[in-house]
Amino acid sequence: MSKPPTIRDVARLSGVSTATVSRYFSGKADSVSPHKIESVRRAAKSLGYTPSEIGRSLRLAQSRVVMMLVPDATNHFTADIAVSVESALKEIGLSMVLANTGENATQQDRLLADALGLRARAIVLQGAIDTPKLRELAARQNNLIFVNRRPAQGILAPYVGIDNFQAGLAVGRHFVERGYTNFVAIHGPRHYSGSTARLDGFLAGIGEDAKVLQFESAYTMQAGYDCASRLLEAEPKKYSIFCANDMIAYGVYRAAFERKMQVPEDLVVCGFDDNRLNEWLAPWLTTVKVPALDFGPAIAELITTPRPDDEQIKNIILPFTLQLRQSA
Predict the structure, then answer these.
(1) pLDDT > 60? residue 254
(2) What pLDDT does residue 2 have?
(3) Quick one: fold of 164-289?
(4) Which of 93, 202, 208, 216 is surrounded by the most beta carbons within 10 Å?
(5) Domain residue limits, the chain
């Protein structure tokens, strides 16, 4: 197999020096004559030459790559955000590398090291896990952006997401206004800030005196199914269930369906996220709509806007809406 063309091959074919070719590809061609620029362009096209991003990043101490770490690449809402980010980055001449942490701290830290090796222009963490490695990196670099899950206390970095407490509060108040009873919260892990904020908002919305059954759950359909199965087997009644995301809500619905329970006649269910599957598979699901496709432009704005010298952190809080449908 033939070797890929090099900068020397381009210089030889175009009849100019390697320094001239290097200036052209590094965007410093102001001092190069139009005739030589055209010769280099034709030679590069003829040879199929593209400059080495690794070499470029070594010269500039930063690449055109943005690395995005996600907690679960199979989650449809997560995927929607990733698509939005990739599209927005393309508009500003950047590329995205997507990596899955699997909610595993060790895996996250390994991927952070990889991002450093790539000299990533920015590291976008959707659902970050607080680790010593992350804190060390945040203290040394100002190119981290947190998405959906706010940075842990003591980490100074921008955040893009919704106000999870207010969203949970809206659901709680909606349940009360509808006269629902037998409240249940199937919430995410309490050690994650977003999970805690959603739950705390919901509890505030239904009032301090209301009794709420709580199940801590992973953000998966299986976890939602397992929680609902335990709940409905113990004492079947018309519960009003707030789910931490739509995936959990799907699992709850499956458990109810297997017991021939109808939603909302026998069970009230509210999700969170409003991922695009709902339009096709769950048009009945009341849920908190988070504008997944707005994340990309917001993140691109943070990447292209230098942080002020006074290190003021810019957070972008996106709007949410309570999408009312049949289930609640």
Answers:
(1) yes
(2) 57
(3) Rossmann fold (3.40.50)
(4) 202
(5) 7-51, 61-161+293-317, 164-289
